[in-house]
Specification:
single chain; 12 helices; disordered C terminus; 8-stranded mixed beta sheet; Aspartate Aminotransferase, domain 1; alpha/beta; 2 domains; 3-stranded antiparallel beta sheet; 26% helix
């Protein structure tokens, strides 16, 4: 079922600002927020001095960068700002990024993932509007919402407007996993949303503005023609890896689950050709693990045994060491639940290898959104017991998030999938 999202400009209060909606886009033709801004909502930025928060994925449907589109439209960009991985998207995960100068335009690039995580008063001097165009990946752990929240808070302190140029959620609008306990809030979990939140960055910004009491003068320019029933392959937009270890749409579908294993002694494939598509350790008995995983009957995913050798993995897990692993492949995107799959994998690995699978409590709990999952898995709980209460919390989240949504949701996306037994 494909629904065409209403085109227009959405203000922080949830109502439309004055904007003329063009004719609906043809099916599967999606225009990102940057194009909608320039064609339909130019009044938001005309004669304004702009700061642009973006990276290599900030492009139009033809792959032309936001910087070129804005400058080509006669708009004045005063400064650029970059999130984790930097303006070119090549910095290692978690690596501090220094300020720089864009060689093509001479514009300053202020890093928001280094000495500063929010724009300073000096950086914002001379700006009227902060444009945010970042490609989120659909998982709670991704830091781009944290950067957007920091930008919104800085904008409030300095009397600036914020305009988010929205993009599709690349893995669609399905919600799955547990909802963050706010006691575990961090830069990899800013809001009480599920592991797979089903929202766009623009919708998350609206939710954060309300629930965190930020009070930003926030406008979201929607992506025209996108429906939460679509994944990125259906949009017709160019796929640009949002970060060095999320290189494919396949990896993005696994990321809401496999990322949990960053808080364990399992490799998630960093330093290989398939990061976040495979999991392993030198001691893993893949034959026994695969037998149990296949018997679990998890929907929408296929498992296969692989061997890999991480090279400069960045997480210090098994560098240049032969690793026995499990490769995951999505076979049905509508049926697949990466969060339930990851929990089942960890439960099976623990059962096959008592004492081998270990957790880094602080890191794992921040990713999981609470300590309950780690405690349950450490104690040998079955997957269903480890995920007890998740569906009820998902339903509460769905109800709570309605006021922040921009794009109509098909009913079958509203509650995610039930945890595996």
């Amino acid at each position: 079922m494909i629904l065409v999202a209403m085109v227009g400009v959405v203000a922080a209060c949830g109502g439309p600002r004055a904007a003329v909606a063009p004719a609906p886009a043809p099916a599967h033709a999606v225009r990102p927020g940057i194009e909608v801004l320039l064609s339909d909502s130019l009044s938001l930025v005309r004669h304004a001095r702009l700061g642009l928060v973006t990276n290599q994925a900030g492009v139009d449907a033809a792959g032309v960068s936001d910087v070129d589109r804005l400058r080509g439209g006669g708009l004045e960009i005063v400064a650029l700002f970059s999130p984790e991985h930097g303006f070119r998207g090549s910095a290692a995960p978690g690596a501090a990024v220094a300020n720089a100068v864009d060689s093509a335009t001479g514009l300053p690039i202020y890093s928001l993932y280094g000495q500063n995580t929010a724009p300073t008063e000096a950086m914002l001097a001379g700006l009227d509007v902060l444009l945010v165009d970042l490609q989120d990946v659909g998982a709670r752990y991704y830091t781009y919402l944290g950067t957007t929240v920091a930008v919104m808070r800085a904008a409030v302190r300095n009397g600036k407007r914020v305009v988010v140029l929205d993009r599709p959620n690349p893995i669609g609008g399905t919600v799955q996993g547990n909802v963050l306990d706010t006691a575990f809030a961090s830069f990899v979990g800013m809001l009480p949303v599920p592991m797979r939140h089903g929202m766009t960055l623009g919708e998350l910004a609206r939710l954060a503005n309300a629930e965190l009491g930020i009070g930003a003068d926030l406008t979201v320019v929607p992506a025209q023609g996108w429906s939460p029933a679509m994944d990125f392959a259906e949009t017709g937009l160019p796929f640009i890896p949002p970060s060095p270890n999320l290189r494919s749409l396949e990896a993005l579908f696994h990321y809401p689950g496999v990322c949990l294993m960053e808080g364990t002694n399992l490799s998630v494939g960093r330093g290989t050709d398939h990061p976040f598509e495979q999991v392993g350790a030198p001691w893993l008995d893949t034959t026994r693990v695969l037998t149990r995983l296949r018997a679990a009957g998890l929907p929408g995913v296929r498992f296969a045994g692989v061997r890999f050798r991480p090279k400069r993995p960045g997480d210090d897990k098994y560098p240049n060491t032969p690793v026995a692993g499990i490769r995951l492949t999505v076979t049905d995107r509508d049926a697949y639940d990466p969060t339930a799959t990851a929990v089942t994998m960890m439960a099976v690995i623990r059962a096959v290898h008592p004492g081998k699978l270990t957790w880094t409590p602080g890191q794992f709990d921040r990713l999981a959104g609470n300590s309950a999952l780690r405690v349950a898995l450490s104690g040998g709980a079955q997957p269903g017991a480890a995920m007890e209460g998740w569906p009820a919390e998902l339903q509460k989240f769905v109800a709570r998030s309605q006021s922040a949504l921009i794009y109509p949701r098909p009913a079958d996306l509203a509650g995610g999938t039930a945890p595996a037994p």
